Amino acid sequence: MEVKANEFSNKDITVTYDPCKCVLSGICAKELSDVFSNSIIPWVNLDNTETKRIIEQVKRCPTGALNYFKNKRMQAS
Ligand code: SF4
Fold first, then answer.
1. Atom of ligand 1 nearest to the CA of 17
2. Other residues' Cβ atoms within 10 Å of the Cβ of residue 24
3. Which of 35, 37, 61 is nearest to 48 (CA)?
4. Which of 15, 21, 28, 29 has the fewest Cβ atoms within 10 Å of its own Cβ atom?
């Protein structure tokens, strides 16, 4: 997994995190604790579940602090 500040990638997607928008509700960590953690750094580990599930969870972030884009090499599904 490649990690930049507030940017986390697996082979398919890159998840971005905007701390200014995050209200620390913990929804992401509660609903998908294999990927999002509020106690481990890096706090996002995209290698722990399938990409489809990560995208679902990113879309549930109520503030838009989490976003994602598909990496260029990802095949259209
Ligand atoms: S779901 Fe979004 S707003 Fe809530 S803790 Fe996670 S990143 Fe922050």
1. 7
2. 10
3. 35
4. 21
Name the band, by pLDDT with cuts 50, 70 and 90, for residue 51. very high
Distance, in Å, from the CA atom of 4 to the CA atom of 62, rounded to the nearest integer, reads: 23
How many residues are there in the chain? 77
- CB distance 61 to 27 below 8 Å: yes
What value does the CA radius of gyration of the chain take, rounded to a whole number of Å?
12
> What pLDDT is attached to residue 35?
95
Is domain 2-70 classified as CATH 3.30.70? yes
pTM of the predicted protein model: 0.85
